[in-house]
Design a protein that fits this description.
The chain has 10 helices and 13 strands. It has a single domain, classed as Ribokinase (UDP-N-acetylmuramoyl-L-alanine:D-glutamate ligase), CATH 3.40.1190. Strands 5-4-1-8-9-10 form a 6-stranded parallel sheet, sandwiched between helices. With 288 residues, the protein is of the alpha/beta class. α2 links the parallel β4 and β5. It starts with a strand and ends with a helix. It comes from Cytobacillus horneckiae. It catalyses: D-ribose + ATP = D-ribose 5-phosphate + ADP + H(+). Pfam families: PfkB. Keywords: ATP-binding, Carbohydrate metabolism, Cytoplasm, Kinase, Magnesium, Metal-binding, Nucleotide-binding, Potassium, Transferase.
C-alpha cells in the first residue's frame, strides 16, 4: 500500500497565446477545470501505474469536493481517509499556460485544515504503508508529524519539497529520499553550511532536471539518467508524475537507478498531454 498525504486542488486552467502584463486584459484561447494538487497528483500517478493507493487529505463540501471524490473512486484510489469539511472550500490552483509553460497561484482552502492532530488520527494507516509520499502544500507541522509516525514504524518516505521550504535538519533522518527540482536542490544544499550535514542531504537527493532528466548521488558521485525526447504540450504535474512513479518502482523492489529511469519515462509521457492528471501515463503506455 502506498499512502499519499497532501493537497487536493481543482486546477482552473487558462490557455493563452498572449502573456498579459500587469493590468492588461487579453483574450484567452480556452478554459478547463482539471483535478490537481500535488498530493492528489502523486496519488493518481501511482494509481494509474497499478499501485494500491490510499489518499489522506481534505476537500470542501462544495461542487469541486464532490466532483473530486467521485473522480478518485474512478481512479481506484482509496478515499476512506479523505474528509469532506462542512462549510469549507476545496483548494484550487489558478494556472495560466503560455507557450508550453505555466504560472500557478494556489489557494489552499480545506488543505490547510490538515493539522498534526488530524495526522495522528491516521497513524495506523501510515504504519501499514510500504511507502509514504509527502509534499509541502499542507501545513508543515502536519508534514513533520507524518514523518515522526513513519519513522516510528520504519516506513520509507519520499518528500517532494515543493512549494519550496527549508527542510529542518531533524527531518533528515526520517526521510528516505528528497525529490527537488534543480532550483529547490540548490536552495536545500545552500541551507546547510556543515559539510557533514550537507553530505547527508546530498545522498538523499533525487533531483529532477526537466528535459535533461534526473540525477542522484551514489557515494558522493553523481548518477545522471537522461530524459526521453518528447514534444511538450503542458509541463504541469510532470514532477508529481515522477514522484508517484518513483514510489511505485521502489515499492516493487527496483534499485534507485531503475526506479529513477522508470519515473523519467512516466514524467516524459505526462507532458505530452494537457492537464496534470489527465496526462499521466498507464503502465501499458510506458511499456509501449
Amino acid at each position: 500500500m502506498l499512502t499519499v498525504i497532501g493537497s487536493i486542488n481543482m486546477d482552473l486552467v487558462t490557455l493563452t497565446n498572449i502573456n498579459p502584463s500587469m493590468g492588461e486584459t487579453v483574450m484567452g484561447e480556452s478554459f478547463l477545470t482539471i483535478p490537481g494538487g500535488k498530493g492528489a497528483n502523486q496519488a493518481v500517478a501511482a494509481a494509474k501505474l497499478g499501485a494500491d493507493v490510499k489518499m489522506i487529505g481534505k476537500v470542501g463540501d462544495d461542487l469541486f469536493g464532490k466532483e473530486y471524490m467521485e473522480y478518485f473512486q474512478r481512479q481506484s484510489i482509496n478515499v476512506e481517509k479523505i474528509s469532506v469539511e462542512k462549510g469549507e472550500k476545496t483548494g484550487i490552483a489558478s494556472i495560466t499556460v503560455y507557450q508550453n509553460d505555466n504560472k500557478i497561484i494556489v489557494v489552499p482552502g480545506a488543505n490547510h485544515l490538515i493539522t498534526p492532530e488530524v495526522i495522528d488520527s491516521y497513524k495506523e494507516d501510515i504504519l501499514q504503508s510500504s511507502w509514504l509520499l509527502l509534499q509541502l502544500e499542507i501545513p508543515l507541522a502536519a508534514v513533520e508529524r507524518a514523518l515522526e509516525i513513519a519513522k516510528s514504524g520504519n516506513v520509507k518516505v519520499i518528500l517532494n519539497p515543493a512549494p519550496f521550504h527549508h527542510i529542518p535538519e531533524h527531518w533528515l533522518e526520517k526521510i528516505t529520499y528528497l525529490t527537488p527540482n534543480e532550483y529547490e536542490a540548490e536552495q536545500l544544499l545552500n541551507a546547510y553550511s556543515n559539510e557533514q550535514i550537507g553530505n547527508r542531504v546530498r545522498e538523499k537527493l533525487v533531483i529532477t532536471k526537466g528535459d535533461e532528466g534526473a540525477e542522484f548521488f551514489n557515494e558522493g558521485k553523481i548518477v545522471h539518467i537522461p530524459a526521453m525526447k518528447v514534444e511538450a504540450v503542458d509541463t504541469t504535474g510532470a514532477g508529481d508524475t515522477f514522484n508517484g512513479a518513483l514510489a511505485v518502482a521502489l515499492s516493487e523492489g527496483n534499485t534507485l537507478e531503475q526506479a529513477v529511469a522508470f519515473a523519467i519515462k512516466a514524467a516524459g509521457l505526462s507532458v505530452m498531454k494537457l492537464g496534470a492528471q489527465s496526462g499521466m501515463p498507464t503502465r501499458e503506455e510506458i511499456s509501449e
